[in-house]
Amino acid sequence: MTSLSPALKQATPVVVDHALGSWIHGTDGKDYLDFTTGIGVTSTGHCHPKVVAAAREQVGKIIHAQYTTVMHKPLLELTEKLGEVLPAGLDSVFYANSGSEAVEAAIRLARMATARPNIVVFQGGFHGRTVAAASLTTAGTKFSAGFSPLMAGVHMSAFPYAYRYGWDEAAAVRFALQELDYLLQTRTAPNDTAAFLIEPALGDGGYLPTPPAFMEGLRERADKYGIQLIFDEVQAGVGRMGKFWGHQYSRATPDILITAKGIASGFPISAIAASTETMSKAWPGSQGGTYGGNAVSAAAGVATLEVVKEENLVENSRIRGEQLLTGLKDIQTRFPVIGDVRGRGLMLGIEFTGEDGKPDASTAAAVQQATTDQGLLTLTCGPAGNVVRLIPALVVTAEEIAAGLDRFEAAV
Ligand code: PLP
């Protein structure tokens, strides 16, 4: 009998029959409250009627038209809609299928725009699983061990992980910026450095918001040295963190922004945005792919951005996120195994630690398993695997958050 690759080992035993909004109905006949959303993808909830209708309509018009051969309407419409939400000055967009491909496109663009080779990444960053994206990923050895050599020209600097250092945030930011300055003096000179690549919150690296002052420190150095600042908003963007873009908690804006996941409610599409001047450095043929910017995905993307606006989902993410964070902090007071609770919007992490304060992956794994028994789907993350992450749909209701908190506490 043919079986699935062990690389596809599931975090839960659930097989989906159908799903709607925040709920997954399993083939076991049970209903599960889904706080995983396909790893932060089904932003408007499962099978939002408007997204389903847009995709159905598009399937009957044209499914695929390779975008360097003939253009299609949905991609033009999506580009216009993105223009309403992109940071000022990022007025040119390129499309791919996945987060990893968009990360690669951003790296290629930064290298072409600066004619410099090196990329600086930050400890705990996750940028994908293609060989180049895995080379930029430092969120755990499982993402790159065993298939070296990786891409050359990647340098890792410190991330201001205040909780783990036992410092306040300002001290952690000072330290991480000093480390970066040292790296630029000793390992990769500014005129060899094409880009800084950072997430507005570490995703697979532990659901840790990046301090605004750190983002601003990167912006200052990027301006000073002509380095491209790339924000990987693949997971944090499209309302996930309670603002449209995760980086909007800081005053820093990127030279290149990467988006994917939440942009089309589950249809595969990703994009990078940059200024027209920067984007013009990527000549025809240097970027692209057969399936990039698929018509059905783009139509779903247009519908998704409309739903996010019409249903005020960024605000819902902020408000429901506060409800969830407050509830989790309350649960933390009853369970000393919970060392830290953090996050913004609907991207929240619960870090499990032992009595010695060290990461406790086995408790996190046991809690994650137990949530499934309670009818709540969750995931773990973090380089040490000791963080349970909660990523509800942006349409989640107050009642669903309350039910999720009850089930989570029962699991702990
Ligand atoms: N960048 C970030 C921040 C991510 O969270 C992910 C996926 O989780 C990726 C890139 C890679 O995206 P994909 O899995 O679609 O290739």
UniProtKB/TrEMBL annotation:
The protein's enzyme class: transferase
EC number of the protein: 2.6.1.19, 2.6.1.22
Superkingdom of origin organism: Bacteria
Molecular function (Gene Ontology), one example: identical protein binding
Co-factor requirement: pyridoxal 5'-phosphate
Pathway: Amino-acid degradation; 4-aminobutanoate degradation
Keyword field: Aminotransferase, Pyridoxal phosphate, Transferase
Keyword Iron-sulfur: no
Catalytic activity: (S)-3-amino-2-methylpropanoate + 2-oxoglutarate = 2-methyl-3-oxopropanoate + L-glutamate; 4-aminobutanoate + 2-oxoglutarate = succinate semialdehyde + L-glutamate
Keyword Transferase: yes
Pfam families from the UniProt entry: Aminotran_3
PROSITE patterns linked: AA_TRANSFER_CLASS_3
Matches recorded under InterPro entries: Aminotrans_3, Aminotrans_3_PPA_site, Class-III_PLP-dep_AT, PyrdxlP-dep_Trfase, PyrdxlP-dep_Trfase_major, PyrdxlP-dep_Trfase_small
Assigned protein family: Belongs to the class-III pyridoxal-phosphate-dependent aminotransferase family.
Protein name (Swiss-Prot/TrEMBL): (S)-3-amino-2-methylpropionate transaminase
Organism: Arthrobacter subterraneus
